[in-house]
Design goal:
This protein has one domain. It is built from one helix and three strands; from the N terminus they run βββα. It has a three-stranded antiparallel β-sheet with strand order 1-2-3. A hairpin with a 5-residue loop joins β2 and β3. The radius of gyration is 19 Å and the shape is elongated.
């Protein structure tokens, strides 16, 4: 079973996870990293978060699928 249930979006510049944002933030608004001050549009930050999640989840899912196949095929080729 995949163990990762939550991925926190990190600042693409420094890796920090807290951002300042305007009220009622929209995709075309800028958010600002609290640590390094890097500003990025929310839509771009979301995209970076998706890529960060892929880096974590794809290897985890691949390992899980390989294990499932191994268990399914165990004993099939004797």
């Amino acid at each position: 079973m995949i163990k990762t249930t939550h991925v926190t979006i990190q600042c693409p510049q420094c890796g920090y996870t807290d951002f300042e944002q305007p009220e009622n933030v929209q995709d075309d608004d800028f958010v600002k990293c609290v640590f390094c001050g890097h500003q990025i549009m929310l839509c771009d930050l979301k995209e970076a978060g998706i890529e960060q999640a892929k880096e974590i989840l794809i290897p985890e899912a691949k390992k899980e699928i390989e294990e499932m196949l191994k268990n399914t095929l165990k004993g099939t080729f004797k």
